[in-house]
Write a structure and sequence with these properties.
Helices cover about 20% and strands about 40% of the residues. The chain has about 70 residues and is of the alpha+beta class. It has one domain. A hairpin with a 5-residue loop joins strand 1 (about 10-15) and strand 2.
Length: about 70
């Protein structure tokens, strides 16, 4: 039996929300697209204002996990 380990990354993310609040988040994901999907699912409301405009910003740093 062969075990295959997927390379995973730890993304340290800072979300600058629509109201100006900073929200630090740590996300474990296989790639950047998966990280953004998880981020939008949980913290997407911080990136959109009352009119539905995308106004927040995201900064992140990636580290490979063993």
């Amino acid at each position: 039996m062969v075990l295959v380990h997927k390379k995973r990354n730890r993304y340290t993310v800072v979300v600058n929300g629509a109201s100006g609040q900073l929200e630090p988040v740590v996300i474990i994901a296989s790639n950047m697209q998966e990280m953004f999907n998880k981020l939008i699912k949980v913290h997407g409301h911080l990136l959109i204002d009352e009119e539905g405009n995308e106004v927040g910003t995201v900064q992140f740093r990636s580290n490979v996990l063993g």
